[in-house]
Amino acid sequence: MGAILVTGGAGFIGSNFVHYVLENTDHSVTVLDSLTYAGNRASLLGLPEDRFQFVHGDIRDAELVHELFERHDSVVHYAAESHNDNSLHDPRPFLETNIIGTYTLLEAARRHGTRFHHISTDEVYGDLELDDPARFTEDTPYNPSSPYSSTKAGSDLLVRAWVRSFGVKATISNCSNNYGPYQHVEKFIPRQITNVLTGNRPKLYGAGENVRDWIHANDHSSAVLAILDIGVIGETYLIGADGEKNNKDVVELILKLLGQEPDAYDHVIDRPGHDMRYAIDSSKLRTELGWVPKFSDFESGLAETIEWYRAHDSWWIPQKAEAEARYKQQGQ
Ligand code: NAD
Ligand code: TDX
């Protein structure tokens, strides 16, 4: 691997990956990030200067991407527009970054023969019923619901086509919902934690029965490193840590951990087309690559995450008012 280029490394999962790689391996890392509202340079402070570089730029900039691919051994592609609610109000940036951006990177990977790992989501598979015993596997048909998930599905299909048609050395992973430090306060868990920390009530969409399969961002990072290291070119791996929880239970747990009454939250307007349940079967990753998650206890992982937000209000306060203003316009 040697020198790794990480797109979107100033975002939530990308920045966790960068910290993880620099702490646990000898690789050097370059981040390419355009610092949208979701990117934060402050998520990449204190990293070793001899092994870390930050490049401010756009993944759609073919010249810049070409120059960066030329001097890196592998690329891990996290950059995306990532928030479902935003995609329902303004889909265009999702098409631009998730589709055109991924295409631009694939063309560079093709030109330079660079090892490419594409980060994707379980949302490409659509959703499951609450009482369905099934979980998503690598063979589940694609059936995305939102502009966000359909552009991620499109980007996955581009990667598969570039592998088959042009021999690009790529792998894909589809992961479930991540939690941990450095997550933007627009997302479910940090929004509720920071609502309580600012004296406001958590906001639950609809009845809160929707289920997400939570995984700690560090477990996502260890899985991606395993795939980069020993994953088979052309293969897709599902990443998940058996963390199914409904949203109501998560809100109540956050309230408990913050010393509040369990019913101190509001029900707000539901998300249009809201996926009911995601659930990942990660047997392939576990059996073929020997990966095991370390954060098996959601409550203690969540408690650590809450402590991180409590100790880092200078990181999230600048995002909070704008994120809440957007939600207020939507009645959420
Ligand atoms: P995020 O929104 O926190 O971060 C995205 C980053 O990409 C930001 O730093 C942003 O500045 C950067 N970016 C956006 N457009 C860009 C462009 N055109 N050029 C360069 N940089 C650009 O997202 P996240 O939650 O960290 O998600 C990262 C990846 O993981 C995404 O591909 C997402 O689909 C995938 N994923 C996320 C989750 C989750 O739970 N958050 C789960 C599975 C997969
Ligand atoms: O205030 C809220 N109240 C609420 O009930 C918010 C922001 C969300 N929700 C619900 C909607 C979802 O059922 O919580 C659940 C999680 O919501 P998000 O954090 O917006 O995540 P989700 O839509 O599940 O998508 C996430 O996981 C898959 C990431 O944002 C995606 O990038 C990833 O692909």
UniProtKB/TrEMBL annotation:
InterPro entries: dTDP_Gluc_deHydtase, NAD(P)-bd_dom, NAD(P)-bd_dom_sf. Residues 5-304 form the NAD(P)-binding domain. Its cofactor is NAD(+). GO terms for molecular function: dTDP-glucose 4,6-dehydratase activity. It comes from the Bacteria. CDD domains: dTDP_GD_SDR_e. Keywords: Lyase, NAD. It catalyses: dTDP-alpha-D-glucose = dTDP-4-dehydro-6-deoxy-alpha-D-glucose + H2O. Its EC number is 4.2.1.46. It is an enzyme of class 4 (lyase). Belongs to the NAD(P)-dependent epimerase/dehydratase family. dTDP-glucose dehydratase subfamily. This is dTDP-glucose 4,6-dehydratase. It comes from Subtercola frigoramans.
